[in-house]
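Lecture 7 notes: from sequence to structure.
We start with the chain below.
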Amino acid sequence: MQVAKTPTLTERMGEVEKSIHKLMDSTKWIRTFSLRHVSISLLVSIATLAITYLAWWEPRTEKALQQNIDSTFESKLKESGIHDQLDKINEKVTAIQSTLGTLQPFIQDLVQRQLSGMIALPKPAFHEKLGQLADTLEVAREQKISIPGIAATLGEKLVRDNDRSAPYWRAAGSLISYRSQGVAVQSVLPDCTLKPPDPMVILQVTDPNHMQVESGHYHNCKITLDSEQDSQRLNKYMAEETPLVEFDDCMVVYNGGPIGLVLEWHDHQGSITVGGIPRATTVSISGNALTFKNCQFAFSINQQPQPKEAEVVASVLSQNGSLVNALPVATVTKSAL
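Predicted structure tokens for the same chain:
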């Protein structure tokens, strides 16, 4: 006959810790969104308990200390009923998670109603609600609420709006991030610029002075548009051998800062390293330099961007498809073979 092993204190604490972490992840949206029709006092209390507990527990997770706790206090804590109390805490956290699950339809309905109401607002009232719009879109993204029609209409309304103060850009960034949430990318991605992109490819030589090329490619990696390090690396690759770059299935991050990347060429004279051709080919290029295909965008804009950065955000906002150009300009490649 097999006898079930009684979990140790460390194992019980570990299970409680996992449950509380899961609960905190599932309630992050509460910090940015006010559900006026739902009492969240219990959730706040649980979150406070979770923070207090984690502050106590995490510094004590060293292996040696765990072993010491298990060997010294296991029997006494069992006698005092601590084990049973931990089990009850775990059960209560699980019950709260279940309750949050039952609230999901209500949250979805509330989000849809709020966003639909904002669409109908006249321009002055709409501008007053831009902060709330950004918060609501964040909830929709985190809760994976599907509102494709509403999102498309909001995008059109924002694109047509020429009164672009700081709250406008925050709302635009939230909408860009929401729209791309359905794109599946890996949770942990390397920095794209740690290596050069895959080489460009000549598709067709249309005449002695012009040719069609395929951009160099990055796949399954992360690029941060306002990262100085990413800009320095990628600009070097682009200047030396790959002036046109496409990001496929990547995470594109923008935090509202200056963008140092080359976004557009104006009669750029340089060389490209072409796949299958051992030598560099000299070309003249004008137009858009960066393209994003099937990418997930994570835009967080909390201040008024500069004109160059505003143009990029407006460009991405206006392109609601799988292929997005950093700037909406055509690219022309002239060959000097």
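Points to note: The radius of gyration is 26 Å. Residues 35-40 have pLDDT under 50 and may be disordered.
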